[in-house]
């Protein structure tokens, strides 16, 4: 587990950080990878000033998950969360991976998200 995922989750999703610490070591790495992905996707709207840039970032993450799904390390971007997600997707079943992929296109306009609950729905529901 790279240090970036737990710190990212700790900074932006503290409640889930605490809950993830309660998991067994074998599941903790995967949970931090998925939560790190969730944070990255949920924060896109606040990190960019133009909608087109945000949509490109959403496309980046969709392509990243698809590359992880193909189990080809060379196709995965050299992003810390992406690399950790690649490592841990091998321990997930296809239904869980399909759930991640199904959520990304459903984000119609992340710039209209106003509730924390909505941001939690952007990523994978654990």
List the defining traits of the structure above.
single chain; 126 residues; mainly alpha; 67% helix; 0% strand; globular; Squ/phyt_synthse
How would you portray this structure in words?
The chain is an all-alpha fold and 126 residues long. The protein has one domain (4-122). 67% of the residues lie in helices and 0% in strands. It has helices at 4-12, 14-21, 25-42, 44-47, 51-69, 80-89, 94-103, 116-122. The two termini are 18 Å apart. The model is unreliable at 113-119 (pLDDT under 50).
Short summary:
InterPro entries: Isoprenoid_synthase_dom_sf, Squ/phyt_synthse. The chain is mainly alpha-helical and 126 residues long.
Helix content class: 55-70%
Q: How many domains make up the coordinates?
A: 1
Structural class: mainly alpha
Helix and strand pattern: HHHHHHHH
The count of β-strands is 0
- Report mean pLDDT, rounded to a whole number: 78
Distance between the termini: 18 Å
Low-confidence stretches: 113-119
Tally of DSSP helical segments: 8
Overall morphology:
globular
The major beta sheet can be summarized as: none
Radius of gyration (CA) equals: 14 Å
The fraction of residues in strands falls at under 5%
